[in-house]
Amino acid sequence: MTSKALILGATGGIGGETARQLQQTGWQINALTRRAQNRSKINWIVGDALDPKAVSCAVQDCQLILHAVNPPGYRDWDKLVLPMLENTLAAARQTSATVVLPGTLYNYGADVFPLIDEAAPQHPVTRKGQIRVKMEQRLRRFAEEGGRVIIVRAGDYFGPHAGNNWLAQGFIKPGRTITTIANPARVNVGHQWGYLPDVAATITALVAIRERLQPFENVHMAGHWDDDGRQMVTAICRVVKKYQLRTPKDRAFPWWLMRLLAPFQTTLKELLEMQYLWQQPVQLSNTRLLAVLGSEPHTPLEHAVEQTLLSLGCLPSTR
């Protein structure tokens, strides 16, 4: 039988990249989207992840559901995120589908820093983190009830077609030649990054062996560890220089301005909530991932940055 997956969030960075890589390994893809799409070989189904009937219809014959959908623009997370997940779990019960969730660092507080393994307690310090913890608790109960779950946790996402992320919203400005880089990290404070194609490759590899995994499988990716908070900035400068453009200037991210503007803009408020992840080193241990896969997909940082900047329109199409 041909394997089939339902992607919730296929128009986003992690959903779209995972759909592409699953297709390359022979999977057929259903994708639920609120607006009609006409691209790639995906079977696009118009519907809303908040509509249980729409999700139920879209999951027909699917052995996998990637839950990579979020409310648009950070609005009403506390009201919409968990109902979306319940619709996914109800659909997974229909076809005994494995549920995959891209995890985040938001679940953790400083009590488990700087190195976090899969068994670390989750004591979030932000509203968004509290919601993410509730999601994973619900997924664990689903697994205890007989379902199958895979959580793949990585650092801050970046990559081609990534949605809301620090690289595009903080460091640089999409669609413009890079003249300055705003670095949110404190001096000599390490930070974790997850390149979307590597995350998608990890998900694809785990899905291929899902029957051999634990019913509730939680793995962390090492990704790109920026040990002094400067490596991402340095990689951006090197890539820009390759295109014979002027080397960007490096400046500190204006956290003071975020505090002034946050009350008036939801996105800035969300960014400000995550400041604590830039003030102290936060690193994920990939011990469990190596135990089940043997190795972790890893793209060299400079190449990953180049592909990201090209997709953001910050570099000439040729050099």
TrEMBL record:
<protein>
    <submittedName>
        <fullName>NAD-dependent epimerase/dehydratase family protein</fullName>
    </submittedName>
</protein>
<dbReference type="InterPro" id="IPR001509">
    <property type="entry name" value="Epimerase_deHydtase"/>
</dbReference>
<dbReference type="InterPro" id="IPR036291">
    <property type="entry name" value="NAD(P)-bd_dom_sf"/>
</dbReference>
<dbReference type="Pfam" id="PF01370">
    <property type="entry name" value="Epimerase"/>
</dbReference>
<feature type="domain" description="NAD-dependent epimerase/dehydratase">
    <location>
        <begin position="5"/>
        <end position="173"/>
    </location>
</feature>
<dbReference type="InterPro" id="IPR051783">
    <property type="entry name" value="NAD(P)-dependent_oxidoreduct"/>
</dbReference>
